[in-house]
């Protein structure tokens, strides 16, 4: 990797700050204040200050020695408590700043990037918590279990999500949906909040007034959630820009992060950025939206070639919190699933949410949104238990779309997609297919499966299929598929050979079996009720649908 930055370092002072490892007590730790002058090629010079620890400086020394053979540094180990510490660090930085090889080294650039990101993240987190419906330090206890009692900095964001952070370093320790939450008891300085069937938390406040304020804020959340439950015709467009300060999962001290973004049975996966804790993706996405009260979910994973990816954190953004028709760029903190997760860092996103209320009534003769088992009884629109329109879609795509780049990945125009849906619902035997609207027809095809009341692989088989992922074998999958309703099997017999043709042309259309599973997996295989737990299972859903697509020829011979 070529590095073009020229970096100069100057030690300003050594100072004491409150220890980030101590939530209680007054332990202090020493840091070095550094002025950094960075001059990237063809860009203006940037000057900023960071505070770095003894550990970070010694890591820098070690990495420089590994990267640059036979390099001479004035010190090999830095002790910040030494009486000559400031003099030693000044000598080190003078050496670094006057040695061109070190100035341009990958080690130095990664050190500056990491320390600058940590500094910016600390400021960002303060602003993130400050910009809340309510925030404050509460004592939190799960399910009345005293062993779980902890002091947390709690914050309600968007009137939809309860975040909680460690008090001192402001690291996100978790989040809870408030959509189904309810206060089940309260006292003068406490309230008990139920957030799931078997999950409740008791929060204790310092004063009765603070308790009243929290209860009032939670009541406001219920009103916001109710108001946001409207149907819309919309689209969310965005860019997953970059992340900073991610956790290290690999022995080399880095991770191999990628992101999955998901909403309404639609998802995209970014490329993997290898050996990085500060990855840049710059990947665009676009999702069609029908429910204003939905959440855009982003999950970060560490790729592993030999086992399931490691979870690195999640972000949830309620659509109603985004200003309509306005592009917004924001940093958001990653949250863990539970207290055992190793999660840290933030993600930078650019989002634009465009929508209008959708008041269209569903026709009694509609095709979209109807069970396949019901549609097969309508002989005017079905042949051999398969909706005729699906056969027409497949024929159109096979003739015109096998070599179309991103045929199912590139999002079509939402207005066109709705128009095609209305045509199919009102006059399914006279739909006018046209090549100019290929991606809109692809969008309407995907929408058919997203709107099925019972998905293609059925709610009943969701847990059964997920249980097979530990040791994926073809025969158990065949037996499960054979147990599906006849109309579902008939549709699979239509689309699996078609998907095989798409994958065979992946060098043109960029849609291999992995990409097809990312696009169609969430609509083909989904739980009856989506929960935070099932949201995290999406990567397993992708593995199962990919396995089915890869083995479709064998499966079709036996069903």
Automatic annotation (TrEMBL):
Sequence ranges assigned to domain PH in this UniProt record: 131-223
Extract the GO molecular function terms from the UniProt entry: GTPase activator activity
* The entry's keywords: Cytoplasm, GTPase activation
Principal place of residence: cytoplasm
Instruction: Give the highest taxon in the source lineage.
Output: Eukaryota
Among Gene3D superfamilies, the record links this protein to: C2 domain, Pleckstrin-homology domain (PH domain)/Phosphotyrosine-binding domain (PTB), Rho GTPase activation protein
Q: Where in the cell is it found?
A: Cytoplasm
Instruction: Cite the Rho-GAP domain residue spans from the record.
Output: 370-556
Ranges for domain C2 come to 217-332
Alphabetically, which GO biological process terms does the record hold? Answer: signal transduction
Q: Which SUPFAM superfamilies match?
A: C2 domain (Calcium/lipid-binding domain, CaLB) (SSF49562), GTPase activation domain, GAP (SSF48350), PH domain-like (SSF50729)
Classification via InterPro entries: C2_dom, C2_domain_sf, PH-like_dom_sf, PH_domain, Rho-GAP, Rho_GTPase_activation_prot, RhoGAP_dom
Sorted alphabetically, the Gene Ontology cellular component annotations on this record are: cytoplasm
Known role: Rho GTPase-activating protein involved in the signal transduction pathway.
Q: Which PANTHER family match?
A: RHO GTPASE-ACTIVATING PROTEIN GACEE, RHO/RAC/CDC GTPASE-ACTIVATING PROTEIN
Q: Per its record, how is this protein called by name? A: Pleckstrin domain-containing protein
Q: Which organism is it from?
A: Polysphondylium violaceum
């Amino acid at each position: 990797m070529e590095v073009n930055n020229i970096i100069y370092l100057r030690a300003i002072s050594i100072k004491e700050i409150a220890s980030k490892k101590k939530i209680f007590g007054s332990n202090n730790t020493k840091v070095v204040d550094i002025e950094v002058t960075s001059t990237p090629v063809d860009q203006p010079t940037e000057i900023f200050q960071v505070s770095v620890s003894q550990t970070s400086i010694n890591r820098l020394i070690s990495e420089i020695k590994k990267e640059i053979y036979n390099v001479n540094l004035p010190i090999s180990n830095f002790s910040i408590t030494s009486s000559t510490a400031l003099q030693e660090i000044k000598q080190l930085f003078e050496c670094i700043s006057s040695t061109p090889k070190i100035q341009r080294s990958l080690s130095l650039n990664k050190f500056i990037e990491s320390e600058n990101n940590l500094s910016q993240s600390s400021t960002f987190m303060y602003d993130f918590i400050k910009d809340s419906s309510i925030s404050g330090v509460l004592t939190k206890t799960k399910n009345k279990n005293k062993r779980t009692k902890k002091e947390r900095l709690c914050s309600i964001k968007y009137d939809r999500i309860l975040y909680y952070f460690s008090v001192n370093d402001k690291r996100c320790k978790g989040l809870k949906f408030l959509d189904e939450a309810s206060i089940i008891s309260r006292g003068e300085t406490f309230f008990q909040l139920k957030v799931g069937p078997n999950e409740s938390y008791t929060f204790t406040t310092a004063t009765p007034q603070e308790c009243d304020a929290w209860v009032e804020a939670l009541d406001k959340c219920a009103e916001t959630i109710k108001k946001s439950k409207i149907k819309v015709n919309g689209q969310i467009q965005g860019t997953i820009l970059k992340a900073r300060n991610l956790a290290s999962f690999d022995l080399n001290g880095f991770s191999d992060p990628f992101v999955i973004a998901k909403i309404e049975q639609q998802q995209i996966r970014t490329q993997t950025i290898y050996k990085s804790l500060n990855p840049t993706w710059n990947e665009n996405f676009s999702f069609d939206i029908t429910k204003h009260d939905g959440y855009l979910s982003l999950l970060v994973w560490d790729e592993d070639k030999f086992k399931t990816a490691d979870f690195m954190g999640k972000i949830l953004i309620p659509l109603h919190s985004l200003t309509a028709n306005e592009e917004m760029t924001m940093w958001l903190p990653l949250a863990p699933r539970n207290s055992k997760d190793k999660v840290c860092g933030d993600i930078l996103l650019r989002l634009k949410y465009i929508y209008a209320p959708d008041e269209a009534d569903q026709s009694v003769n509609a095709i979209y949104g109807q069970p396949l088992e019901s549609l097969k009884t309508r002989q005017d629109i079905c042949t051999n238990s398969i909706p005729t329109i699906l056969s027409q879609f497949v024929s159109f795509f096979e003739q015109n779309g096998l070599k179309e780049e991103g045929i199912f990945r590139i999002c079509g125009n939402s207005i066109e997609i709705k128009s095609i849906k209305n045509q199919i619902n009102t006059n399914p035997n006279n739909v006018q297919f046209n090549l100019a609207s290929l991606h809109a027809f692809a969008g309407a095809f995907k929408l058919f499966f997203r709107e099925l009341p019972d998905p293609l692989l059925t709610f009943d088989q969701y847990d059964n299929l997920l249980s097979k992922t530990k040791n994926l074998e073809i025969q158990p999958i065949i037996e499960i598929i054979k147990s599906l309703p006849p109309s579902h099997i008939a549709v699979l017999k239509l689309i699996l050979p078609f998907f095989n043709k798409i994958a065979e042309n992946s060098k043109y259309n960029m849609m291999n079996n992995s990409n097809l599973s990312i696009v169609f997996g969430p609509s083909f295989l989904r739980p009856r009720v989506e929960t935070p737990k099932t949201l995290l299972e999406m990567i397993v859903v992708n593995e199962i649908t990919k396995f089915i697509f890869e083995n479709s020829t064998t499966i079709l011979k036996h069903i």
